[in-house]
Amino acid sequence: MSSASHPHEPHVGSVSSKLNWLRAGVLGANDGIVSTAGIVVGVAAATAERAPILTAGTAGLVAGAVSMALGEYVSVSTQRDTEKALLHKERRELRDDPVAELDELAALYEAKGLTSATARTVAEELTDHNPLLAHAEVELGVNPEELTNPWQAASSSALSFGIGALLPLIAILTPPATWRVPVTVAAVLVALVITGSVSAGLGGAPKGRAVLRNAIGGTLALAVTYGIGHLVGAAIG
């Protein structure tokens, strides 16, 4: 079947990159759900007043989103700087010794299973088309046309965390005082089941195990913070 029959089919690298971003977004939302739920449930165990719960939950949401964004920005910036340094080195090697670089690329294709003649032909044709792209993708695993974007990573991380954090905050503030914790726990567990299932599906892992792990982890976090909040509330009350 010719490639012309699938003119809009995405490339494997592009799909993998998008899945990684989506998976990171799901995990960011998961962090927002668990951390904010832990805060508001802990405060709700200590007091029945809405104001302290709202204050603590909002502060946790903002602090968490900012922290996630800064961490992601620093991490991805470091990765981007490393990729740019590798590309600069590769560009210099292509300029200074193109024959040796061509031999290296052909050897890499031969190591992948191509015959020596075919590997040489592929290396020559790809180098003629776009030498940096041809060598960087195979030798470094880096696509010079798709470098990671730290600002995109930071904003995506902050947004996903904030969306996740809104769920327990809304859940704890909406019902009457006696129902706040049960409603929040139920909402959080449902959300964790969903995020666990989605993240497992994106990664190709068994969904049941991921969902169970997510639910147990969230339950333990809520139980610990509720217990601490209850003890602190009793001590200062």
Mean pLDDT across every amino acid position: 85
What is the radius of gyration?
25 Å
- How many distinct domains? 1
- Secondary-structure element order, as H and E? HHHHHHHH
Brief overview, please?
The protein has 237 residues and is mainly alpha-helical.
Structure description:
The chain is mainly α and 237 residues long. The protein has one domain (13-236). Helices cover 84% and strands 0% of the residues. It has eight helices and no strands. The protein has helices spanning 12-46, 50-96, 98-111, 116-129, 131-140, 150-173, 180-203, 207-236. Helix 1 (12-46) packs parallel to helix 8. The N and C termini lie far apart (75 Å). This is Membrane protein. It is found in: Endomembrane system. InterPro entries: Ccc1_fam. One of its GO terms (molecular function) is manganese ion transmembrane transporter activity. It comes from Mycobacterium mantenii.
List the helices and strands and how they pair.
Blueprint: H1 12-46, H2 50-96, H3 98-111, H4 116-129, H5 131-140, H6 150-173, H7 180-203, H8 207-236
Helix pairs in contact: 1-2, 1-6, 1-7, 1-8, 2-3, 2-5, 2-6, 3-4, 3-5, 4-5, 6-7, 7-8
Give a quick set of tags describing it.
237 residues; mainly alpha; 84% helix; disordered N terminus; transmembrane helix; membrane; manganese ion transmembrane transporter activity; Membrane protein
